[in-house]
Amino acid sequence: MDNATSLTIGRGIRNSAARAPAKIAIRCDGVSLPYGELSARILRVAQAALASGLGPGDNVTLLAPNFLEYVEIVAGLSDVGVVVVTANSHMTSSELNAILTDSDSRALFVHLVCADVAADSDAANRGPVFSIGSSYEQWRDQRYDVLPLPVIADDSTFAISYTSGTTGKPKGIMLSHRSRTLTFLAMAVEYGCYGPDDHGLAVAPLYHGGGFAFGVVPLFTGGCCTMLSSFDPEQLLRELEATQATSVFVVPTHVSALFALPEATRARYRFPHLKTVISNAAPLPQSAKEQLVDYFGEGKLFECYGSTEACIVSNIRPGDVLRKRDSVGLPFPYTEISILDDDGHPVTPGDSGVVYSRSPYLFNGYWKYPEETAAAWHEDWVTAGDLGRQDEEGFLYIEGRAKDMIISGGVNIYPKEVETVIERFPGVAEALVVGAPDPHWGERVVAFVVGKGKAEVDIVALEAHCRTDLSNFKVPKEYRLVDSVPRNPTGKLLRRILRDELE
Question: N or C end: fewer C-beta atoms under 10 angstroms in the chain?
Fold first, then answer.
């Protein structure tokens, strides 16, 4: 096998460029980059890396928000076997130091908005620091002797994405070339909005696994991608209309911000070209799904479930998104799902267990964590630790994470089940349920409730509603009204923060 046949992101983009070199590939902050130039830049990055002594198996870190050069850096470096650690652009200098140390990074590529964080870290003592807008471009555009690209194995690691660290020390999740490129092709099949005639709007951060996949798939399939360097809900609507986008990927925090806009603001925009709206990263409340369908129209909304470890596991299509309440759909193409009990045996439909999947998209393991890697696998199946069930039709329902499960009076309680019931109550926008230490029960159920707009939530009526739909032991023993629930930048709920408040 050589690089002419290997499954790499760079190769996919070069193939798109060969078909239409003058076509615009990426737009960001008013600047456009055609495919021919993008392909050339990727090759220049690859040659610069080789000339700098970087090659297969070396790790480097990229600290940046969404910006025009993000893709060329990742694709160019991975084309020569350099593994890119895609770091969260919101991290602190101490967090950056921890990742640089853990990943053994030999260089840092840093965007201007993160320059202060990098300067306060010890990155300069570990290797070269390339600043986007100055030293990076000088490094990329020097004239180098043209060296042959090394052979890249499809199953080798191209990037490392660190977990958010909400439950402990962040772990580096190793992703393979094969996993990512085959995911792109499956996405084109499943969503019907990724091809040469399509235009995707990338809103989520590319440092996140899902944000990267949905941001780069338009380029791999020959379309165009407009990236937002930061999120503003009305800018999202403006760009959807102005670019004639056919797809957009959002997380629940984007959706919440969108519907916090005045109705008159939302009504100003029209999206006749929009085919597909996809949500991921955290469960989307059923009420939010109904709002999205009402606003963008029927036949467009998908919600997928997955993890960085397993990639996209399931997807619910527009025809089922309102029919199958709170479901995350059927298995993604070429994916199998199994719900296993604590002994590793499949449960019967309707029963809860740990969600496992197997597919060509699974991760290579956790960097430097062989025991945790082994724990994530059961034979050739992988889990991220989520609990769920499948109904008789095979539709998947996520009930939370095993580590989030509440044990009250010796009985297991799944927070997601309680949250779903609370969110059905009129006037509730969102709920987050956690277990608090209790001398009698071991843990008691506490619900943090966010109201819609400025309306007050009637707690007495809410409790009566819960008692109608939940067994007594699942009904919260305490309700707390809050303005919002904590999330990380990619939309994942931070239960630990609220649990810590209760201890």
Answer: C
